[in-house]
Each structure stands twice: as structure tokens, then as C-alpha cells.
Amino acid sequence: METRKSKRRIRKSVFILPAIALGVLIAWLAKPAPEPPSVPEPPTPSTAEQEVYAAQVSQITQPPDDIPELINAWNAVSDDDYELASVYGIVPAATATMQLNPEALESLRKMFWAAKASGYDSLYLSDGYRSYDEQAELYENAADKSYVQPPGHSEHQTGLAADIACLNEDMSKFTQTPQGAWVNDNAHKYGFILRYPADKTEVTGISYEPWHFRYVGVTHATYMYKNNLVLEEYVEYLKNS
User: Is the entire prediction scored with pTM above 0.70?
Assistant: First the structure.
């Protein structure tokens, strides 16, 4: 009799233990994933604040004494240890692991907030910092290399370049969207320049990229914007002035 009872207990455990394990697995899978921190809503700038800022920007008529770092096919990045900060929870971004230069990130945050306060939302950071290896892989796999710099020669390796996009829109038509047009007209106020405009491809050596913006600081960016200069022309001007 004891032998039969033992056998019955063993048979029950064979069915019960997997059932318990299955129940635990189902409960674990049903547990909601933690949500990422939300990006705070932008404050609405007062009319007075907007007027003061606009007046300050309008008064910029001379470039500062320093010269922005020029990085292109002919000028390599000068360092491999640029300061970086995570964009996670600061600005909307394509991936949570994306990084930018801290000063550029703060200016991008202000620009995104200003855009949203002006009624132009759904902007996000499509790409930021890239390592040398990431740039090398991108360059190697690029079917059209007129849109990408070789490794060691990309602004993305500094964390100062920001590829900006609009949700559910083709990046190649970014400036044709209301959001993109706003960024194109206002980026200089936050220290960013459209790095590769359509009418300067022979100077930059890169095809038109309406999404690629480079942080250089408000004064540099404003002077370049007002005088229709790309970075190659601007650096040459500063060296000769």
C-alpha cells in the first residue's frame, strides 16, 4: 500500500510542479514593463522673455574670437575623448542609449521646448554621438558615400552633431514639414547650424542633409545664418580676418 501511495504522490508532483512553474512564468510575463522617465512639458515663454532674447540675437553682428572646430573629409577630429552626456529623459530620441555633448544637449532641449511652445511638436533626435567603430561600419555599408564622412572625419564623433527628425515623416523632406521649417529658421538662436545645405555641396563635400545640425554656439551660429556661410567658409573667414 505504501508503495502505491508513493507512486501516486510522484505522479501528482510530475503534473503539479510544471503547472506551478507555468503559472509563475505567466505572471512574470504579464507584469507591465517599467516606463521610461517622461520628458517634461515645455514652459510657455513669456512675450517679454521672447522679445529680450530676440533683441539679443538681433544685435549679433560680429563673430567671437574663437574658431569652431572644422571637421570634414580634409580635417580629422582633433580628439577621441569628447565630453558626452546621455539624452535619456532629456529630449525625445530614437534610442535610449544616445549621447550628445552636454552643452549641445542643453541647447537642443531648449530648442525642442521652444518649438513645442510655438505649436511645433513631434521633433526628436534621430542620431547623435557615434564612436569611431560605429562611423567605420556606417561608412563601409553606405551605398552612397556622398552622405557620410569616413571614420575619423565625422562631426558625429564629437557629440556636437544632431540629426533631427519629425515623427512619421521622411527625413529627406524634413525642412518641408512645418516642424522642420521652424527648426531651419530658428536653430541658430540655440547655437545650431544646418551643416550641409543644398546650395553649398561643392564647399562641404557632402550632399544636402536637411536633418544634420551642428552645434557651434549662439554667436557663431547667428553670424553664419545671417551671412549665409557654411562652416568651411566661416572658418576661412575667421582665419583671414
Answer: yes
